[in-house]
Amino acid sequence: MIRVTVIFFARARDLAGTEKAVFELSPDATTSLMMQVLVDRYPALRELQDHLRLAVNRSYAAGTAALRDGDEVAVIPPVSGG
Fold first, then answer.
1. 2-76 architecture in CATH?
2. Are 6 and 21 in contact (CB under 8 A)?
3. pTM score
């Protein structure tokens, strides 16, 4: 198992109801699996699921990016403003 720390930003933080969480995942986990785990644990995130971006260790990651023990995953909702 690997341990990954997830940090939620802005609206994602509001919907998850937390700023940070730690997850234990299988060693072959990817960001795609991480997204599914997040939506399963925090169903309110489904509202933004198609628009959320994940960053691993401060770099945006594709859905197939591998996760490793100790990674930090940021959940970033769409940015808007003016």
1. Roll (3.10)
2. yes
3. 0.92
> Bridge-partner residues for 4, per DSSP?
23
CA-nearest of 7, 3, 21, 4 to 75 is 7
Is residue 37 within 8 A of residue 25, CB to CB? The reply is yes
3-state secondary structure of 47: helix
pLDDT at 60 over 80: yes
**Domain residue ranges in the chain:** 2-76
The radius of gyration of the chain's CA atoms, rounded to the nearest angstrom, is 12
pLDDT for 33: 96
Structure tokens at 76: 């970033």
Which amino acid is residue 67, in one-letter code?
L
* Mean pLDDT taken over the chain: 95
